[in-house]
Each structure stands twice: as C-alpha cells, then as structure tokens.
C-alpha cells in the first residue's frame, strides 16, 4: 500500500517533572514493570537528541504471536521517532487466545489485564522520561490493533488518538470518557481479520470493518459529513471529520491488500497523531 506522506511539526517544552528517574540512554532498552500481579516487559525507544525536553509517547502493539522487536522492525517506528522526536514503547503481550500465547486481552476475557498494563506502562515510561501527558498515543497491528481499539475506549482519559492497523474493532460496552480521534487501515483482501465477518472468521473477530466504523462514529457523535478521496487506483481514504470533542474518524482502505502493515502507514499515523492533543 502506498499512501501520501503527511508531516507536522512538534513543539517541545523544557520543564522536567518532579521525581523523574535517571534517564535511559537513547535507542532501545528492555524495561519491566509490575502490573496486576505480573511482571510485564516492554521495549522502550528513546529518540536521538533527547535531553529532558517534554516529548510525546506512542504505544505500539505487536500482532498475535509477535514480540516487540517484530513490531519495531515492521513499523519502522524507531527511525521515525528519532526523526520526529518522540518516545515509543513496544509492549509484550502475554494473553493466550485461540492463535497465540503472546497476544492481547482485547475482548474483556478472563486473564491478563492489558488495560491496567497500558496504564502502568505509561506511568513507568513517564517516570523515566519527560512525557507530555497531552500527547500519548496508541497504534498496533492485527491483535495489537484490536487491543488498540479497546485502549482507545477505556483509556480515552489518557490517550490523545489511536491508529489500529488491520484490526479495528468496537469493544463490547464501549463508552469512552471523551471522543478520541481514530485512524484505521485495512485491506479488503485480508484473510485473517476479514473486512466482512464470515462463517470461518476466528472467534475473536466479532465484527466487520464497516460495523466497527459505524459504531465508532455513533460513539464519537460524528456528523453525517463523511467524504471519500482516492489515494491510488485501489486505495481510498474515508473520513468523518466533525465529531465530538474535536475528534475525527478516518480509514485507509486498500481493495487489494491482505493482512499487512501498509507501506507508508507509519508516516501517516504519526502525521495524524501530531495533529491531535488531549
């Protein structure tokens, strides 16, 4: 998938919060945090040039069966973070679903409390780096996208925007505390998380993309002003730009793409995040 690149500048503050721990070196390091009675881990990327200024944080969740290093390589968010000056946390999933033991509790089942893990991870990163609390975001691929959808609902008080890739859902009982900007990506040829639910859909895949979009638009109280633009011959961008609390809901749809992280999606995700603060 090829999408046009959008870039937006960032402005950083320079005040260190009280109680900040010794700052980790730039680049990647593995960190651990206690959460809901478990020791959880994440890969932390600190951008080049970080010197204590306030910076955004992106949570980037791997797909089912993946590991943080996979998602770092797949998304290219390390190099992007270095260029744009934000931190990235790549959490490690431990929830066992029908596909993998390294997934996410996206459907509120018994087991790992991944919502609490996200809260504890944000707090842990914020104790190590000067994170701007108004600029915390989440993205993820496949199972990580399903979990990103849940976090967009239940952590709307902490997250500024969300961008699920190949896995947008609308969680059962979702009542976000505020309308949160959503940008999704999905291929109509996806045979893992199908664009339309079918008889052979996996149990965790509870709705098609059109249903998820409709429910998010209703929850965000979006106006009926959606518009569609062609990005390429088989790719369109659909957006509902006027939702409550200054939010918007958008999606890139590729008629030919399968279950992939699209080329240039990371650039588009960051450009979208950079436009939104909580």
Instruction: Determine the strand fraction and express it as a percent band.
Output: 25-35%
The 3D shape can be described as: globular
Q: Any idea how many domains?
A: 1
CATH arch. level architecture: 3-Layer(aba) Sandwich
Number of strands: 10
Cα(first) to Cα(last) distance is 30 Å
Instruction: Give helix and strand order, one letter per element, not per position.
Output: EEEHHEHEHEEHEEEH
What does this structure look like?
It is a single chain. The chain is α/β, with parallel strands linked by helices. It has one domain (27-274): Rossmann fold (3-Layer(aba) Sandwich). It contains six helices and ten strands. The protein has helices spanning 68-75, 77-84, 114-128, 143-154, 209-219, 265-274; strands spanning 27-35, 38-46, 55-61, 87-91, 131-141, 161-165, 182-187, 227-232, 235-240, 249-254. It has a ten-stranded mixed beta sheet with strand order 1-2-4-3-5-6-7-10-9-8, with helices on both faces.
Descriptive key words:
278 residues; alpha/beta; Rossmann fold; ten-stranded mixed β-sheet; 6 helices; 23% helix; 25% strand; globular; disordered N terminus
List the helices and strands and how they pair.
Layout: E1 27-35, E2 38-46, E3 55-61, H1 68-75, H2 77-84, E4 87-91, H3 114-128, E5 131-141, H4 143-154, E6 161-165, E7 182-187, H5 209-219, E8 227-232, E9 235-240, E10 249-254, H6 265-274
Parallel strand pairs: 3-4, 3-5, 5-6, 6-7, 7-10
Antiparallel strand pairs: 1-2, 2-4, 8-9, 9-10
């Amino acid at each position: 998938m090829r999408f046009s690149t959008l870039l937006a500048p960032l402005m950083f503050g320079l005040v260190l919060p009280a109680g900040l721990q010794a700052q980790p070196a730039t680049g990647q390091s593995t960190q651990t945090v206690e959460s809901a009675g478990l020791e959880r881990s994440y890969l932390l990327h600190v951008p080049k040039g970080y010197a204590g200024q306030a910076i955004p944080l992106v949570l980037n969740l791997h797909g089912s069966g993946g590991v943080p290093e996979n998602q770092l390589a797949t998304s290219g968010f390390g190099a992007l973070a270095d260029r744009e000056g934000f931190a990235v946390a790549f959490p490690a999933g431990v929830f066992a679903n029908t596909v993998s033991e390294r997934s996410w509790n996206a459907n509120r089942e018994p087991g790992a409390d991944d919502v609490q893990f996200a809260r504890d991870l944000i707090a842990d990163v914020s104790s190590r780096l000067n994170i701007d609390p108004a600029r915390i975001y989440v993205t993820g691929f496949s199972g990580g996208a399903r979990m990103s959808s849940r976090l967009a609902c239940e952590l709307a008080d902490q997250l500024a925007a969300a961008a699920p890739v190949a896995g947008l859902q609308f969680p059962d009982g979702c009542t976000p505390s505020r309308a949160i900007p959503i940008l999704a990506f999905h291929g109509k040829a996806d045979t893992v998380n199908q664009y339309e639910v079918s008889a052979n859909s996996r149990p965790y895949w509870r709705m098609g993309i059109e249903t998820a979009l409709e429910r998010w638009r209703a929850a965000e109280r979006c106006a009926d002003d959606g518009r569609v633009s062609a990005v390429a011959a088989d790719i369109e961008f659909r957006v509902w730009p006027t939702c409550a609390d200054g939010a918007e809901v958008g999606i890139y749809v590729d008629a030919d793409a399968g279950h992939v992280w699209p080329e240039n999606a990371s650039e588009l995700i960051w450009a979208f995040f950079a436009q939104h603060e909580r």
